Amino acid sequence: MHLRTLIRRFSWFVTACAVLAGQGADSLRFHLGLLADEWPQWRGPTRDGVWRETGIVEKLPAGRIPLRWRVPVSSGYTGPTVAGGRVFLMDREEAPREVERILAFDWKTGKTLWTRAYDCTYEVSYPAGPRASVSIDEGRAYALGTMGNLHCLAAADGKVLWARDLKGDYKARVPIWGIAAAPLVDGELVIVQVGGASGACLVAFDKRTGAERWRALNDPASYSAPVIIEQAGRRVLVAWTGENVAGLDPASGEVFWKYPFHQTRMVINVPTPVIDGQKLFVTAFYDGALMLRLVPDALRVEKVWRRSGPSEIQTDALHAMISTPILQGDYVYGVDSYGQLRCLDARNGDRIWEDLTAVPKARWATIHMVRNGRRIWMFNERGELLIGRLSPQGFHEIRRSKLLDPTTAQLNQRGGVCWSHPAYAYRHIFARNDRELVCASLAAGD
Question: Taking the model in full, what pTM does it have?
């Protein structure tokens, strides 16, 4: 029997037991919610920016989206994650002392379940708060702060199970905008882009104890979160560092292949590598776009094309700043560094079209995109949620509504921004700015 079928049947069994035990309709709704997808890490269950739930609204309401709840938080770039009926977030407070906080909320009510704070003095630009999303696995929450404080906590109550000071333990070279790549849990390991000395750009820790299991690469760290793919019958960790796109054995750290991506002015690669079949695509602000081919029967890659150079920022290719693109078949869809939504031919990098309606044109203008069936859900930096479709013929907007107001802690320009990636779980959206975390239903019929 298919594993997903078994899980679904077991979930229905749990629901039935809850009802028989007299827990009532609210418990039934809660368990039915858990049948839907969670969002336990950066960019969703499999880090591919795909939202697989069904029963979602076809159109958004005019004006503002009604909120299920809203709760106050402090500033930070960390996007929420959702698992086990809890919403996880990180933020930063400066008074009465400088601290980073790890927070957990009840997904149905927004009630604060627990808070863990630790002292943390920032030595970075754009000091609004933590960057990396909290990763949830088997009842544990893995939280990585801007200056390299890595915590493993019990997801239920926030008890600290272990902690590491990556800057101190590994002499980590903290990037100018802080450590940002979300921890990746794989099997018994949690893998972190540390940027440490002595071959510790990437470090894998025992997820239960925090003990080091392997380290790899001498590269400086980037802001890009690693992913796991399959190639030539093997599981491959794809990490985009400050110098290379690299494929490694996630169990041992053995480097299978590397392709250089030297960044001319500074390390500034934020988007996650995206993969579709044999195509692997990365894009950075100053240095443009690179398409690699994953050789299917060997652990190596080949360059397909490269478009680069500051002179091309306004005229060609894709120079993404924060937004991770979508790679779908023969086309790439992404947001350039000045807010231009662009479609590229994935075969050669030629631009097919450009659209300036999804977000107002501005430097570093940002949209976070996820796929749900044939539709694309976009959350732009103005706090607007858009439903649309992307095709080689252009961007078709179905509807947009206001979800959040921009705030100025992350960028004190153009009235502020919303730069944090939202989470989609239990047929709801969870999003934050520098003042509040909100939840809104996207379920059909609500």
Answer: 0.92
Answer yes or no: is 7 within a domain: no
Concatenating the DSSP letter of every residue in 202-214 gives EEEEETTT--EEE
Provide the residue range defining the domain that includes 435: 36-441
Distance CA 320, CA 344 (A): 13
CA angle (372, 378, 379) in 5-degree steps: 130
Banded pLDDT at 396 (limits 50, 70, 90): very high
pLDDT band at 435 (very low <50, low <70, confident <90, very high): very high
- Count the alpha carbons within 13 Å of 413 in the hemisphere toward its beta carbon: 9
Which amino acid is present at 281? Answer: F
Number of domains in the chain: 1
Q: Is residue 266 part of a domain?
A: yes
Q: Hey, what amino acid is at 347?
A: R
Closest CA to 48 of 245, 295, 228: 228
CA distance 352 to 158: 48
Mean pLDDT of 201-207: 98
Compute the distance between CA of residue 206 and CA of residue 219 in angstroms, rounded to an integer. 22
Is 31 inside any structural domain?
no
Q: What is the pLDDT of residue 197?
A: 96
Residues 383, 401 contacting (CB under 8 angstroms): no
Phi, psi of 272 (to 5 degrees): -75, 140
Number of Cβ within a 10 Å radius of residue 123: 11
Q: Is the pLDDT of residue 2 over 50?
A: no
Q: Return the CATH number at 339.
A: 2.130.10.10
Helix (H) or strand (E) holding 12: helix 3-20
CA distance 235 to 281: 18
Which pLDDT does position 112 carry in this prediction? 98
The pLDDT of residue 35: 56
CB 230 within 8 A of CB 295: no
